[in-house]
Amino acid sequence: MRITRSVAGRRLRAASVATTGLTVSALLLSGCGGSSDSDKGADADGNITLTVADYGQFGYKEAGLFEKYQELNPKITVKEDTTAEEKNYYPKLLQQLNSGSGLADVQGIEVGRIKEIVDTKADSFADLSKAIGVDEWVSWKAKQATAPSGAVIGAGTDIGPMSLCYNRELFEKAGLPTDRAEVAKLTEGGWEDFLALGEQYKKKAPKDTYFMDSASAMFNAVVSSSPEQYYDASGKPIYQESASVEKGWKLAAEAASKKLTQGLAQFEDQWQAALRKSTVATVVCPAWMAGQISTYAGDANKGKWDITSAPGNASANWGGSFLAVPKSGKNVAEATKLVTWLTAPEQQAAVFKAIGVFPSNQGAYELPDVKNATLPYFNDAPIGQIYADGAKSIPEAVLGPKDGVIKDSISTQINNMEQRGTSPDKAWDAAVRTIDKAIG
Fold it and tell me: What are phi and psi of 132, to 5 degrees?
């Protein structure tokens, strides 16, 4: 499973977020000027085309931001090149960085890759530290893209503060509370309480339904709530000794053995069908997951879902991306202006309104389109409040260059425990072999 900031590499229509509207003046606050003398890509009339390469759904098109930027800057044209799957996008980015050609003026970088880029390719990107107002971002987000030299090579787009999405209709049929405050209380002790709630659900569960979609998603939530995950501060892989990995694995194995999970690989066709058919009662919900559920569960299930806080009192982040400016581009100065504008509070709020991915820029949290946001699809859940509360207390985690590989390998083996009945010991050994081969 590719852990991404939004849609795991798939283009989706947006979840509808009900908020007050952004004013035109708010959107204009960060408008930029014309072309710079340092840019070499202008034509004879001073016109510049900026290319933006990204993956999945960053939301700029849906929020109308490229069009707005072009209105503010008549000599600028913005063209977006989107790769559906991040897992296909990233190898191409590395190839382009190694060859020094083919790069866009602006490149998206997923959080699971940012450490590797910072460690090995930081010199290939412009330093944005003087342009973006680093202090505006949640502190841990900015540090993720900061090189040892102090250069900030990526401006934060979104983050994935954790919540829990649950199917109210299935909860009611299983004799469980449906009020989001009551559900939160039942899991306030943490993920162990969550599994206990799953056993209660199983006792009266509607036929052919399951408490959760995927134990690997729960594993990721558990690990993501800890400062120490797969690497230590020195850069050494510690996933085999990590307390959070051990806890997450144990809980995932328990969920699989007790048949509390449908054992679905998230985002694949069977997972989409399960949402449409309402066969899963809960989904671990980083902010961007709401759009997934509303898209695949469809209009027929509107109002049947709700959102509450994640189990326990430990906040977690799952997902997020950055916008970076390659030094080799012909339009570095103008690309930097575009990145600065796109990641400013007003524009991040507009993207949140359009597709529901949560801002990393704290300046957006008090804007009406974030602060007052609710999701009609999810029984008018107050997502602006839920996500902002979580974002402010997410621990600063140590990232490693192969976090994505480690997560994917472990998730694959959790799926094998669920789907094939592989024993936890054999599944873990298989994960270790795959990881060690990949990271050397």
Answer: -100, -10
* Residues in Cβ contact with 268 at an 8 Å cutoff, skipping those fewer than 6 apart: none
Q: What are phi and psi of 9, to 5 degrees?
A: 80, 15
Angle at 127 between CA 230 and CA 342, to 5 degrees: 85
Give the β-pairing of 358-359 and 155-167. antiparallel
Phi-psi region of 239 (alpha: psi -120 to 50; beta: other; left: phi over 0): alpha
Interatomic CA distance for residues 41 and 59, integer angstroms: 26
Whole-angstrom CA distances from 58 to 13, 246, 347, 351 are: 12, 33, 12, 8
**What is the enclosing helix (H) or strand (E) of 289?**
helix 289-297
Taking each helix axis as running N to C, give the angle between helix 243-257 and helix 424-439, from 0 to 180 degrees, rounded to the nearest 10. Answer: 140
Write out the H or E segment, with its range, that includes residue 306. Answer: strand 305-309
The confidence score (pLDDT) of residue 17 equals: 72
- Residues 381 and 374 sit within 8 Å (Cβ to Cβ): yes
Q: Is 171 exposed, middle or buried (0-12, 13-18, 19+ CB in 10 A)?
A: buried
Neighbours of 230 (CB within 10 A): 26
Q: What is the mean pLDDT of each run of 10 residues along the chain (440 residues)?
A: 35 51 38 51 90 94 97 98 93 96 97 94 97 90 94 96 96 98 96 98 97 96 93 94 97 98 94 97 94 93 96 86 97 98 98 92 95 94 91 86 92 96 97 94
What size, in residues, is the chain? 440
Q: Which two tokens stand for residue 254?
A: 């328990």
* Alpha-carbon gap, residue 152 to 128, rounded angstroms: 5
Show the tokens assigned to 12. 């989706």
Q: pTM of the full predicted structure?
A: 0.83
Instruction: State residue 26's pLDDT score.
Output: 39
Which residue type sits at 394?
I
Locus of tokens 């806890």: 247
For residue 209, the SS3 value is coil
Q: Within 13 A of 28's CA, how many CA atoms are on the CB side? A: 5
- Cα–Cα distance measured from residue 432 to residue 440, given in angstroms and rounded to the nearest whole number: 11
H-only helix segments in 74-226: 86-99, 111-121, 139-144, 168-173, 180-186, 191-203, 215-224
**Tokens, residue 258:** 């007790």
Q: Which two tokens stand for residue 78?
A: 């913005």
| pLDDT attached to residue 434 | 97
Angle at CA of residue 93, ends 138 and 322, nearest 5°:
10
Measured CA to CA, the distance from residue 18 to residue 129 in angstroms comes to: 34
Question: How many other C-beta atoms are found inside a 10 Å radius of the C-beta of residue 134?
Answer: 18
